[in-house]
Design a protein that fits this description.
The chain has about 425 residues and is α+β, with helices and mostly antiparallel strands. It has helices at about 5-20, 35-40, 45-65, 110-175, 180-215, 245-265, 305-370, 375-410; strands spanning about 30-35, 75-80, 95-105, 225, 270-280, 285-295. A 4-stranded antiparallel sheet has the order 2-3-5-6, with no helix packed on it. Strands 1-4 form a two-stranded parallel sheet. It is elongated, with a radius of gyration of 38 Å.
Length: about 425
Amino acid sequence: MSTVPGRPLRAAGLAVAVLLGLAPAMPAAAQAAPSYDTLLERLDQLPGTREGAALADAAAARADQARALPNPTLSWSTENAWGSGAYAGLDKAETVLTLSQPLEVWGQRGARVRAARAEAQAAGLRGAQGRSDVAGQLAAVYAEAEAALRRHALADEVLALTRADADAVEAMVAQGREPRLRAVQARSDVANAAAMREEAQAFRDAALARLAGTALLDGPVRAIDGSLLDRTPPLPRGAGGVALAVRIAEAETEAATRQIEVARKRALPDLSVTAVQTRFREERERAYTLGISLGLPLFDRNAGGVRAAHAERRAAEARLDRQRRDSGADRLAALAALAAAGSRTRAADESVVAAEEAYRLARVGVDAGRISQLELRSTRSALIAARAAAVDARLSRVGAEIALARLEGRAPFVEAP
């Protein structure tokens, strides 16, 4: 049986080699994004991380400020002056200098300090959660960019493969081995492959732009340095640990409880000690007065503030209860998703190997005239789908690892300390 001319066969062989990863590697782009691990080292520079750290610092500063004593009050006044008769001018004036110092003897200061420290603890945990969220966003954007690069490379390979198949079909049609309809179908496949390549290029450029913006990279990038899709997630930690979200809810409940104590202390009397110096201008003598003032909580006992503090603690306890239930379910779901994604990735890799071998055998069969062009198109479509499914499976694995890392309060693909 006659065979097609050598030129289409060489083109088809090159396409198969490219698709199977045997062709020479293309030169690397001039500018590549740093690896994921390198970007993690810059995590503290990203806006989301800086925001959480700043809020934690603010809460810590408020805790320090809560320890400050209330400021004293100094007042000055003059009596019996600028009147009439004997009281004209300042000859018989009495100058009074008053120093008043509020005293927190009912434990107001201690309650205030404990409440501020509890809020600082919660803010610190929220900052850690924010840092984990930023790391998860970075991992997601990095993986999306890598997947877009792989899909674009696959689209390039598919276009080269489809063109090679179309050339082979043209040669068969010229020899009368295939009807003219097959050539029309082949050229249509080439047009579709070219359109898919343009679409993949647009998605690639958009994904790389998002990566550059998220990671605060200088200038656009056209490649990435290192793979995240091929990286195996670390082993999940034991179930004995408390999820970070639960720890945050516990800290917020503690802070709400401390606010009840603060609200109660505000209902206690305000006590101040006063020292007064009176200077008699006419006799040029001085007299001193010591006094204590006590506020009487007759009308405002802060009852509404106490009720509000109790209500806020009940809300915090409800959030804590919900978070404990949700975190347990979310962890089981994340572990199941991660295991499923790992199995899906291994199955996809096996499918790619089988599809590559099927396509290679189909090419050989077509060249020998034992397999029709329709069967070749079918095996080519199966190979393309298998390669695309392998990318999707790895992307799903990254997503599952991001979800689990958030529950554990760590950066994705980094073991918990």
